[in-house]
Amino acid sequence: MRHLMSPLDFTTEELDKLFDLANDIEKNPDKYAHICDRKKLATCFYEPSTRTRLSFESAMINLGGSVIGFSDAGSSSASKGESVSDTIRVISCFADICAMRHPKEGAPMVAASKSKIPVINAGDGGHQHPTQTLTDLLTIRSLKGKLDNFTIGLCGDLKFGRTVHSLINALIRYNNVKFILISPEELRIPSYIRETLVNNNIEFKEVVKLDDAMPELDILYMTRVQRERFFNEDDYLRLKDFYILTKEKMELAKEDMLVLHPLPRVNEISVEVDDDPRAAYFKQVQYGVYVRMALILTLLELA
Length: 303
Ligand code: CP
Hints:
Layout: H1 12-27, E1 40-45, H2 51-62, E2 66-70, H3 84-94, E3 97-102, H4 107-114, E4 119-124, H5 130-144, E5 150-155, H6 162-171, E6 177-182, H7 191-199, E7 204-207, H8 210-213, E8 219-222, H9 233-239, H10 247-250, E9 258-260, H11 281-299
Parallel strand pairs: 1-2, 1-3, 3-4, 5-6, 5-8, 6-7, 8-9
C-alpha cells in the first residue's frame, strides 16, 4: 500500500506516468467515469480549504466513487480529544482512501503509519502540499510542454508557503531549472530549503524587488501572505500588500511567461491581470482535478 506525503514519494518517471494519465483523463473523461464505482474517498480536513477538498471530492465523483468526510476539526471528534491515529483507524473501516489536511506538520504522516488505506497529505502546516505540487507540475508540463530548462520566480511568502517548499523540492530533480526567490526579508525561504538548493548545486538567487526579476522569468509563481501563520497581526498587516502583480508589471514580462498561483488570492494579483493570456491560475485549478483523479487511480492500483 502506498501513501503520498511528499512529491518526492514518486520518482520523476512515476510522475511522468501520472501526468500522462491525467492528460488522458482530460481528453477521455468517459473512459474513467466508472472505474471507482463503489469506492469511497474520505476527506478529513482539520483546516479550511476550498480547492483541495472540493477538487478531491470532484475527482472521486468523476471516477464514479463517493465521498465522506468532515471539513473542519470542530465538527469531528477531534474536538473531543480524539487523536489523528485513532481517527484514521476508524476512517479505515469506512473508506478506501483518505485525503487529510492538518495544521500540524507531520500529522498526515502519523495517520499514514496507522492506516489500513492510502493516505494523501492534503497540506500539513507550513511543511508540504504535495497534491498542489502535482497540480503545479502538470500545469507547467501541459502549458509549457516540459519540466526542464526554465527560470521560475517564486514570489511572496516563501517562509510559511508550503506550496513553495513542495514545488522547489520537486523541481530540483529536473534539468536546468533556475530559481529566483522573491520575498521581503522577513519571509525568505527557510534555511533547510536554501541548504537543499546549495547542496544540489541549483542556480538560485534571493531578491526583494519583483520588477527586477520579471524580464528573466519563464514562470512567475505568486503566493499569498498567509495571515493564519503569523504570530503577530502587525507583521501581517505590514507585509500583506508587499507585492501586487498589476497590468503594468506584466508589461515587464516575457510574452509567454506563465503566471501561476496556488490560490486563494487576496490582493497579490490584481483582478485586471486575470484577462491576460499569460494568467494560468484558473486553468491550474482545473488541472488539479485531473491530477487528483490520476492520483486516486494510482494509489488504489486501478490504473
Ligand atoms: N491551493 C489550496 O490549497 O487551496 P485551498 O486552501 O482552498 O485548498
